[in-house]
Amino acid sequence: MGEEVDKVEFTRADRTAFRAQVHRNLDAFARMLRESRFDDERPMTGIEIELNLVDENCDPAMKNTEVLSAIEDDAFQTELGQFNVEINVPPGQIDGVGLDTMEKSIRDSLNAAEEKASRTGSSMVTVGILPTLMTEHIHREALSTNPRYALLNDQIFAARGEDVQISIDGVERLQVTADTIVPEAACTSTQFHLQVTPEAFPKYWNAAQAISGVQLAVGANAPFLFGKELMRETRIPLFEQAADTRTHELKTQGVRPRVWFGERWITSIFDLFEENSRYYPALLPVTSDEDPIAVLDRGDTPALSELRLHNGTIYRWNRPVYDVVRERPHLRVENRVLPAGPTVVDTMANGAFYFGLVRALADDERPIWSQMSFSAAEENFHEAARHGIDAEVFWPGVGTARATELVLRRLLPLASRGLDAWGVDGAVRDRLLGIIEQRCLTHRNGAAWQADEFHRLYTKGSHGRRDALRGMLRKYRDHMHANTPVHEWPVD
Fold first, then answer.
1. Which of 17, 141, 265, 469 has the greatest CB tally within 10 Å of its CB?
2. What is the pLDDT of residues 173-191, one digit of tens each?
3. DSSP letter for each residue of 77-99
4. Which Pfam families match (predicted)?
């Protein structure tokens, strides 16, 4: 959805033409895979971090246009809600001290942006769901002013034909109805991009799926929504429900959702793009004039714009990405599992754990996905969303175990080995994986700290619920900007 979309109404002919173009794109993509036309130099990674804007009371600040104007940095862009912005970190190398360099770059960018945002009366917070976001903030006027978001809203609701029903059971229970997709904007995430070859893609995607539950367990950071304490990573069910285009009847028939974990291990990236064209009608059927086969015939690289636009409206937790940079095509696994925050150093620790673990599992002679069912990986994912750092997950050769014990005993050594395979500097490796280790030992991640601090102010203190959430978020913001790892944050 990063693409600009100008058209505001679509005809049946538009949809027919778009479907035909997607299929032609697929034919061209299959030919490219056969002919090995992809950039396979040193692996690159990029990071996208979605942020929330708050005012002096730590309530949502509907000011992303003003904030972006003040920042004047192309790395920062609009997101779905007026209380969101996103930073796109330039691609960099994993090896050597690359992760350290990326961390410093992100910190420098955020510090400069925060100083400029403060001139608008706003502050930036990296958190999975803004704890002070309430139902009164969820209305159509809260959509960002870019026309593509209103268009996406209209197309999703045209497909649904009815309002969104959000129902989440956790520590408390939430039942609300929404007539816009703004609740989706409440879900702010960190997205790790890993460039891989076509041959390696299925191994890395399968590995990323297999560890998604463990990632969530140690990285959960979204326990509150609309004033209620729900799951430890409430962002998962919220996103699944807020972006769902299916009616109740279509769900009953087993029609696949647009926010999707998947249903099987893959053997080629082509499997995923083919599923997109087979199972999902177009939300934004905008066609280009490109003939991708003709482009290939003359030795050039096609944009495959229809394939990419369609892919951008299907929200896999690990998404395949085709992109072209300087006329050279490449493939990426986009890991969308984790929430934003709590700090930049926590984000980089999450990244190191992910990059190292998927590398070790992808290199393993006996793949993990040959030892566990796909449904077990999906069950781990939703178990971790519910319980966070206290989740119990299944792992081959171990059975069902506390996620923290699994990480400490099995997965951190694997991640360390994987980072060595990438060529990551030993001091960088140990510092970042040490943060994951300490989270597991202290049983404190972002979600755990938020819940503990809220209950100190509300359950054990004299604050009302909303003031307790504001007070908690105020302390969260201070710790976040100090860049202290969350396992060191006090509750006092």
1. 469
2. 999 999 888 999 999 999 9
3. EE-SBTTEEEEEEEEEE-TBTHH
4. GCS2 (PF04107)
What the block records as the tokens of 490 is 């006090």
- Residue 147: pLDDT band (50, 70, 90) is confident
Rounded to an integer, what distance in angstroms lies between the CA atom of residue 255 and that of residue 260?
A: 11
In Å, how far from its chain's centre is CA 80?
14
* Confidence at residue 244, expressed as pLDDT on a 0 to 100 scale: 86
pTM confidence score: 0.95
37 or 100, which is more confident: 100
Q: How many other C-beta atoms are found inside a 10 Å radius of the C-beta of residue 268?
A: 15
Q: What DSSP assignment string belongs to 154-206?
A: HHHHHHH-SPEEEEEESSSEEEEEESSSHHHHT--BEEEEEEE-TTTHHHHHH
Report cis status (omega within 30 of 0) of the bond before 43.
Answer: no
Q: How confident is the model at residue 234 (pLDDT cuts 50, 70, 90)?
A: very high
CA-closest candidate to residue 89, choices 126, 49, 50: 49
Q: What is the dihedral of CA 480, 52, 122, 116, to 10 degrees?
A: 70
Map residue 191 onto helix, strand or coil.
strand
Query: Of all helices (H) and strands (E), which one includes residue 49?
Result: strand 44-54
* Distance set, CA 134 to CA 58, 224, 471 (Å): 12, 10, 15
Q: Tokens 């992808």 — which residue?
A: 362
Provide the residue type at 241 as one letter.
Q
Nearest-Å Rg of the Cα atoms of the chain is 22
Are 271 and 205 a contacting pair, CB within 8 Å? Answer: no
In terms of Cα–Cα distance, which of 368, 346, 451, 391 is closest to 106? 346
Q: Which of 323, 100, 89 is nearest to 192 (CA)?
A: 89
Q: 3-class SS at 42? A: coil
d(CA 250, CA 280): 13
Residue 321 and residue 334 in contact, taking contact as beta carbons nearer than 8 Å: yes
Helix, strand or coil for residue 321?
strand
pLDDT of residue 310: 94
Element (H, E) at 259: strand 259-260
Question: Is the CB of residue 82 less than 8 Å from the CB of residue 144?
Answer: yes
Give the pair of three-digit tokens for residue 280.
Answer: 């999902």
Domains of the chain are 36-261+317-488 (3.30.590.20)
Paired tokens of 194: 């890993």
How does DSSP assign 122-163, residue by residue?
-EEE--SS-TT--GGG-SGGGB-SSHHHHHHHHHHHHHH-SP
Are the C-beta atoms of residues 87 and 76 closer than 8 Å to each other?
A: yes
